[in-house]
Write a structure and sequence with these properties.
Helix 6 crosses helix 7 (232-238). By secondary structure, this protein is of the alpha/beta class. Strands 5-4-1-6-11-8-12-7 form an eight-stranded mixed sheet, sandwiched between helices. It has a two-stranded antiparallel ribbon with strand order 2-3. The chain is built from eight helices and twelve strands. The relative contact order is 0.16.
């Protein structure tokens, strides 16, 4: 890490039970292209220039095994710590946030089961947050981390719930892409009732990158309101923060079901072949 560069800590959420995957031991230690699945994820963050710490959030009874099988046999340069997962994903992220070192101004939240994330995407997303915050409230960030003030696309790539500022011009950047599929709204019977404009929708993944103080404030807001979100960006949006979309590669797949393994393994082996 270059001197003077803003320090970032990655929170790798590995607390899921793997029920949908159908493996009693979960999916994160399954060997994929010669390594445990989560090791590929950790190696990407280890190789990212701007990440100085990694926190793995997993069930306490699995942390020793995960360290022994997915961390110790490999040559990591970035310090890796463990934190206990909670009952829900939101609780797990909170526990990981508590473990972020005080000198890390940026916190990234990432699904452990997304092993195709690239170091350059991680670094570019962090740079996009820093650049967008410096540029002020009218900046739009793209995959190169550049700002495009006044770009109409910014209306669909950024969200500010409640219009309340929390100390940063930009509180978060979330990796994702503009929606390409047609979206439908359904009624209680499952019938289509509306086709909203696709241009106003993004599909989002992880990492989700925030100023650490903004994410802490979001969880303080959650404590006061009892809000439950579907991702961390929804918490930051809910407390009035500003979050922008960062257009990242579409191959950032998540392993949820057994059939997800084949395309992920094929992509990893292709990378090994160069």
């Amino acid at each position: 890490m270059a001197e003077g560069m803003t320090r970032a800590c990655a929170i790798i959420v590995a607390g899921g039970s793997g029920t949908r995957f159908g493996n009693p031991g979960g999916k994160l230690l399954i060997e994929v292209a010669g390594k445990p699945l989560i090791t590929w994820t950790l190696e990407a963050f280890d190789a990212a220039e701007r990440v100085s710490r990694i926190v793995v959030v997993c069930p306490p009874d699995k942390s020793d095994e995960m360290r022994r099988r997915a961390v110790e046999p490999f040559s990591f340069l970035t310090p890796i710590a463990f934190a206990p997962s909670g009952a829900e994903r939101q609780d797990s992220t909170r526990n990981g946030l508590f473990a972020v070192p005080a000198d890390c101004e940026i916190a990234l939240v990432h699904d452990a089961a997304r092993p195709l994330i690239l170091p350059e995407t991680i670094d570019a997303a962090i740079e996009a947050l820093v650049a967008g915050d410096d540029a002020g409230p009218d900046a739009l960030v793209d995959a190169g981390g550049a700002e495009a003030a006044g770009n109409p696309a910014g209306e669909s790539a950024c969200s500010t719930a409640g219009g309340v500022r929390r100390g940063h011009a930009l509180d978060g950047v979330v990796c994702g892409q503009p929606a390409v599929d047609t979206l439908k709204v359904i009624d209680e019977a499952g019938c289509f009732v509306e086709t909203p404009p696709r241009a106003r929708f993004w599909t989002v993944q992880t990492p989700q990158v925030f100023w650490t103080k903004s994410l802490i404030k979001a969880y303080e807001w959650v404590d006061r309101t009892g809000f439950v979100g579907t991702d961390d960006a929804s918490l930051v949006e809910g407390m009035g923060g500003r979050v922008c979309g960062f257009e990242a590669p579409r191959d950032n797949l998540k392993v949820t079901l057994p059939e997800d393994l084949a395309p992920v393994e094929a992509a990893l082996r292709a990378r090994l072949r160069g």
